[in-house]
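User: Round two. Same drill as before: sequence, then structure, for each protein.

Assistant: Same drill it is. First protein:
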Amino acid sequence: MVTRAQLTELGLSPEAIRHRLRTGRLRRIMRGVYAVGRPDLDSHGRWMAAVLACGPRALLSHHSAAALLRIRTEGPGSIDVVVPGHVARRRPGIRVHRQAGLGSSSGWSERWPAAGIVDRIPVTGPVPTLVDLAMCISTAELEAAVNEASQRDLVDPETLREALDAIPPRPGVARLRRLLDRDTFVLTETRLEQLFLPLARAAGLPLPQTQVWLNGYRVDFYWPDLGLVVEADSLRYHRTAAKQAADNRRDQAHIAADRMPLRFTHWQIRHEPDHVRKMLAIAARRRGACT
């Protein structure tokens, strides 16, 4: 893939370019962008052509960047490209997004780069790609995109949440921050007990044992008379396969010993107390009926 400007820099005159177009050595893909001796283009070729057509500082972005990074989203048929805020450029088949300060290193770091090169295509980094997606997809789709980015080791939830506080303000940050706060919210052990124990009392439960060893595991809250175990998780869904497997083994060990395990996130305990209290009351009634 080559631009007209690059061909000119190589010494080709307008007539030489036209000659190569007539003979098929060059094929026009977009205005000012040509394929060299290639009859067909795959998605990568079309993405590269779109970026080249939008100027030297353009980056593949939004849904197209997500596709290049192998984050699946339901995007439009057009290609997304972001350009600096002062650039006014339109191209058929390309959704051009203007962004002030594009390319600025302020707030970015090696841990969360603003841009990169993937398969030789200039593209927004994983963090800005997720921020851009936050402006144009549903909450469920955004949650799935964050999950997939985490599974592909592009960025983990804690690093992503940290990056949102450091990067320059831009649309999409607040929405993504709200989503992540549910999953990166962690209470201290003391604060967890301070918030959870009144909920247990309101559900009709007596004072539990805390941080005790049971069936080979240390548990957060345990009611021996009811055989009820409550664990408080700091992450709701951004957990590794190994962590999920370990949690399953813990729960299975409790069930095998005729205990009932319940899990709540730190966020639920802090921000959804009515739900936690309701579930505790139901569990208490069922376990009370069994004892």
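Second protein:
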Amino acid sequence: MPQMGESIFEGTITKWLKQPGEKVQRDEPLFEISTDKVDAEIPAPASGTLQDIKVQAGATVQVNTVVGTIAAEGEAAGAAPPAPGPVAAQPQKPAAAQEPSPDIPADLSANEKTGLEREEQGAVLEVGEQGRVRSSPLVRKIAKENNINLAQVPGTGLGGRITKEDIEGFIVKHGAAAAQPAAPPVSEPAPPAPAATAPLQPVAGVTPGEIVPMSVMRKKIAEHMVMSKRTSAHVHGVFEVDVTRIVKLREKMKAKFEQATGNKLTFTPFFARAVVHGIRKFPIINSSVEGDNIHYHPSINLGIAVALDWGLIVPVVKNAEERSFVGLQRAISDLGERARSKKLKPDEVQGGTFTITNPGIFGAKFGMPIINQPQVAIMGVGGIEKKPVVVTDKDGNDSIAIRSMMHLSIGYDHRVIDGAVADQFMAEVKKFLENWNEELL
């Protein structure tokens, strides 16, 4: 399991792209993983034949855990030595009859033994007369957040250790409320937890009525959104913008632009460029809260939300203020394409200072987006539609004309940004878009 960034400590294997006995080439995609930062395809570290899979799809393991073995070219893949003992996070049958402090299997490598010994230092929780429950700090954190008594959770890890899958499976089955410490049950079974304790996300191809566990990405999105609503004092504002000039310019230039740059001309870089202009005038929009302080970020790192078939991800265009219009389009197209093909690196979804999300691509007039923490503002881009609009000429004469209109919404943290500042920022973005200079393209 690769490290995939300094802040990432574990990953979930979501899919094996090769099966035992199949040949693999170095750098060929071997399996897919999901972490709390990004979904990614992991390339094979060497050429040869996939000898065995030690960690099956769906399992979550710590970084540097051996998840499979590749036999070198010329080495007999079928003549593998006896399988090593299970790694710390690999599920196995509960060892109910074992001693509270299990021995490290003798047939593990020196590195694996060291890893298990290191994990044991912080993995034991005393629970009085019921003996010792083995769990990692992450498992204990999940248990605390959901009021789980770990003594009630069967462990399937090494020596009866409670893994992340064990605690999450227990919550899905029993619900957080059902697991709160209580008096020992009598002969009657406890009532089942209500279905509302495990909200589900619709999945393509799923049979109605089927219960499907949340993916790692879905759970992280849920945690992040709930945390943001608790953290920031959300306020929203909506502005109507006349983008007729931009629509006509894009239609006129899109073929020439694609021929010259190799990228399709989308609307997103127009909005990105306008946001950069607005932030330069109102830098507090590009800040974050750190305790009792406001951190004004020196660079404008734009997060561009990308809808995926399996969730949502926000890759970041770093130093957007230094990029030309063409540079913004190239960066946005590249990040979006690699997000959909699971090629993003963890640092490409971190460090954002302002986010743009586009519900209008699916027909919404506007959205009320949730702030992407630790940022303090987010802009939603609504759909563009032609409407009859009252237009006033330079002499003050009014007429009705067909214009391409849209709505832009701003979600901001009222702890830091006042309504007047948010509105002034959006008025500047609106003005920039409505008076777009063709030379900026």
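The chain has three domains: 10-71, 110-199, 227-440.

User: Perfect.
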